[in-house]
């Protein structure tokens, strides 16, 4: 799966959009937050913060995408 973002957005909007795209990709793969949190070695609450855009880093996004077998494309 490839997820694409177009246009510009504020940092908060961008993080929220990326988080929503991550959650959507996870759900499309049929993976629960609990299952993914276990794969990543983190608490489910931490995963929730990623998917709502409250916590995000390039490293975390990369690990998340690797764990669900997805890619993120930003244009």
Task: List the main descriptive attributes of the protein structure presented here.
75 residues, 4 helices, mainly alpha
Structure in words:
The chain is mostly helical. The chain contains four helices and two strands, in the order E-H-H-H-H-E. The protein has helices at residues 11-28, 33-40, 44-51, 58-68; strands spanning 2-5, 71-74. The chain has a two-stranded parallel ribbon with strand order 1-2. Helix 2 crosses helix 3. The chain is globular, with a radius of gyration of 11 Å.
SSE pattern, N- to C-terminal:
EHHHHE
Instruction: Specify the oligomeric state.
Output: single chain
Mean pLDDT: 88
**Low-pLDDT segments, ≥5 res:** none
- Helix-residue proportion: 55-70%
Radius of gyration: 11 Å
How are strands sequenced across the largest beta sheet? 1-2
Task: Report the span from N to C terminus.
Answer: 16 Å
Count of separate DSSP helical elements: 4
Shape category: globular
Provide the β-strand percentage band. Answer: 5-15%
What's the total count of β strands?
2
Query: In terms of structural class, how would the helical and strand content be classed?
Result: mainly alpha
Q: How many strands, what sense, and barrel or not for the largest sheet?
A: 2 strands, parallel
